[in-house]
Amino acid sequence: xxxxxxxxxxxxxxxxxxxxxxxxxxxxxxxxxxxxxxxxxxxxxxxxxxxxxxxxxxxxxxxxxxxxxxxxxxxxxxxxxxxxxxxxxxxxxxxxxxxxxxxxxxxxxxxxxxxxxxxxxxxxxxxxxxxxxxxxxxxxxxxxxxxxxxxxxxxxxxxxxxxxxxxxxxxxxxxxxxxxxxxxxxxxxxxxxxxxxxxxxxxxxxxxxxxxxxxxxxxxxxxxxxxxxxxxxxxxxxxxxxxxxxxxxxxxxxxxxxxxxxxxxxxxxxxxxxxxxxxxxxxxxxxxxxxxxxxxxxxxxxxxxxxxxxxxxxxxxxxxxxxxxxxxxxxxxxxxxxxxxxxxxxxxxxxxxxxxxxxxxxxxxxxxxxxxxxxxxxxxxxxxxxxxxxxxxxxxxxxxxxxxxxxxxxxxxxxxxxxxxxxxxxx
Length: 427
Ligand code: GDP
Ligand code: IMO
Ligand code: MG
Hints:
20 strands, binds guanosine-5'-diphosphate
């Protein structure tokens, strides 16, 4: 059985949680490998409706081992709350493990995320303010504290003292806010340590064992390719790599071990936060999609910017990830549209281009070139068989497939686990 990476192919919120929950029924292990609680993965299944920020979306399948990998940054408050909420609702979390190498989000990361955004003024990035960017900054600066550090209280105190001294200088001298108390932060994190210790493990060996047994392992991506710090709309990006390549680093897995890479695309585009989005619709069609689809952030509640499917961006995403298959979610949202548009190229400074520019300034000047297709205007939510989809819906899927040069293996027509149309084998 293979290792399958499930990757956000646009600007996040494509429906990765739903797809992982669905496929996890056949898996042995699900590993989250990037981001932090900036992610919000919605799952609707027989247990109810859930919004997961850190716990992998495979947790609802009774035999699946769920791992929060080394590439994730963890806010212990959020994780503990999530575990408790799941337990209260009858979901067993005894199969959850946390990499001892995963970094912790500390109170100063959350403070600094907000302060840095305020300081950017009109150039704010629109971060989720969860402290994720500052935590990854500290990881690279070798100023991080990891979950494994929670297991040695004396060493934790020493490390926290050293780092907090430094952070307090920044908080007081640069931002003019009150310093954080070493005693308070230490006491808080010792409490979290008590709760989380049983979950903390060396997880690469667990993954290796599952691999050796030939079990199906899913890598659960967070965010989306166009938010990647290298290939996304920098600086309007997140701070860890949501790409398939990030899956290797964030789980501790060789690139040679990934067999399939599934790109999850919405049938249209959304984006939350700042940065260019060539197909954004600032009109009643955009509002219609937002309201019909309830496009409001799972993590922050902010309205998502909505627009037509951008095949230029999608092709780029497919190339840098190497998708072997695609999932199209939220097809049902388009059921009411008399006509649909797909962006097939950009016009940049009077010239036609077919690539996704690296410069955010250039991308902001790109005008979408659209192709129009007829809508189907019949409900699709109850359809489970590809051949039963209206002709125009099949034509829409075929055109997306052609444009992104990647077979569409799965189509989702509603938030519930079973609201999916399996077209070609995924696993
Ligand atoms: P994620 O971050 O990629 O897991 O996506 P989010 O959970 O943030 O946002 C996706 C939203 O779409 C959630 O509200 C899902 O319940 C919902 N969803 C997923 N697939 C479908 C679908 O095919 N149709 C509809 N109507 N909603 C869907
Ligand atoms: P999931 O996993 C959508 C966006 C933020 C902001 C930018 C930087 O649910 O798809 P950050 O807090 O990461 O420093 O914010 O990235 N962003 C997401 N947008 N879905 C997400 O996760 C996101 N995680 C971060 O809105 O624009
Ligand atoms: Mg989300």
